User: Fold this.
Amino acid sequence: MSIRAQRNLRWAPACAGLWLAAATAGAHAAEPVSGAPCALAAQIVGDWTDKPIEGRPWVVVDGGSMDQGVSVGGFLEGWRRVAPSRTLVKAFLARPKGGAVSECPDLPGRFARTDMSFGADAADKVTHKNGQWTPAYSATILSISLPVVSQDGRYALVSIGLACGPLCGNGSTLLYRREADGRWNPVGDGAQWIS
Assistant:
């Protein structure tokens, strides 16, 4: 296990394992992803971090581990609005477990903002003080899985989570649809966790 993976495991339990996927991000030897998944990840990060929550800066990390070991049928239970196709769910559940931060190397470079940082090191700084968990984080943490785009390029699934403290956060898997103008819009969601 890499040093980065060990470091990620230290702070992952704070939000019911949301970031466990980051610990295995280096476990596969796939090439970095580009194109639609990374473009959608950049749009989502931009949309979600548009305004600070309670004036705190943002930390963006890999996410998307809450669906590990889930069946397609179990994954589809409880969806609101539009549900994803079984084919897209199968592809999403079979994806490499690295998140958008590690799989889209140009993602941090798309945001020239002083109120945003990326990765496990940045998250560690806001979740710990003097080696101890902090009751409230000094930044809002956004975790994002690598989006999985349907074969026709019209739909995508992505897991997203927000955390502001050890017992302050939530996460969902969202279904996005690409509109005629190229912009992705959320059309369905399945809640995964809340703390």
Summary: The first strand starts at residue 58 and ends at 62. The chain has one domain: 35-194.
